[in-house]
Amino acid sequence: LQDQLREAQKMEAVGRLAGGVAHDFNNLLGAIMGNLGLAETALPENHPVQKDLARIQGAATRGAALTGRLLAFCRREAPESKVVDPAALLRGVAPLLLGLIGERIQLQLHIAPDAGAITVDPNDLEQALLNLAANARDAMPEGGFLTVSLRRSTAEDASASSHLSTAASDRVTIEVTDTGQGMDEFTQAHLFEPFFTTKGPGRGTGLGLASVYGMVKAAHGGIDILSSPGQGTTIRLQFPRTQGQPEPQETSARPARVPGT
Ligand code: ADP
């Protein structure tokens, strides 16, 4: 417990620091882009330097997207938890998942009709599913299968989530499985840390699983990673089952940020 607390404090400190840097950096990018615009209009359209300006513009735009993601991560609004029907949420998010994974990857949805309701911020859960699907896509550059399933938890779902105090039948499992490259032990030990990424500069931010972790914790849930190199990966989320009537699923108030390619 002591370790977990220290870990949480460390994450919070890193988050605050990153938020501050991202904020200042965003202001600098604003100045760069503003002056670029001025320079572009000051020069004739076919001036050879226009090409250099366009390259600067491209890099600054990528920088702004990165700081945007950082700020969104660090300045997380308090979750707006509701009683949610996860089956309806999964069906609603499926078209976004399809758009994200492209044509080489096949999406399979397994939705048990009697899984039950959960209490979560629906926007956060949608975002988490998109983050998990983006990781699955990146792990399957040659294509494969992405399976998203929903069911009432069973005794076999316990594993590392056994700290969840409720019985399996009082939990709901949402699982995201890919047939991709899998992860070694080092990666599995570090993947929830903010900024931990194996994807190389400009490709990964290392914020995807850190924010999935935050979302699951806020909903009093648990998360398990089942993965081995070359065998694919399953990310299993479990949430306490809620006895309320689910609220009708409206379209997302906040637009989902589709993770970058
Ligand atoms: P990012 O995707 O920006 O790298 P994440 O926090 O989402 O950040 O993931 C951290 C790391 O965990 C990834 O860089 C990758 O090494 C590993 N990872 C996450 N999901 C998967 C997956 N489905 N298959 C293989 N590796 C994964």
TrEMBL record:
It comes from Geothrix limicola. Residues 20-243 form the Histidine kinase domain. This is histidine kinase.
